[in-house]
Amino acid sequence: MEHKIYMEQAIELAKKGEGFVNPNPMVGAVIVKDGAVIGEGYHQKYGQLHAERNAIKDCISKGNSPKGATLYVTLEPCCHYGKTPPCTEAIIENGITKVVIGTLDVNPIVAGKGAQILRDNGISVEVGIMEKQCRALNRVFNKYMSSKMPYVVMKYAMTADGKIATISGESKWITGDKARENVHRLRKRLSGIMVGVSTVIVDDPSLDCRLNEPVNNPVRIICDSYLRTPLDAKVVTTANEISTIIATSCEDKEKIQEFEKRGCTILKVPQGKKGIDLNILMQKLGECNIDSILLEGGGTINYSALESKIVDEIHIHIAPKIFGGNSKSPVEGIGISDITDAIKLKPISTSWAGEDLIIENEVIY
Question: Which one is catalytic: 2, 8, 40, 52?
Answer without folding.
Answer: 52
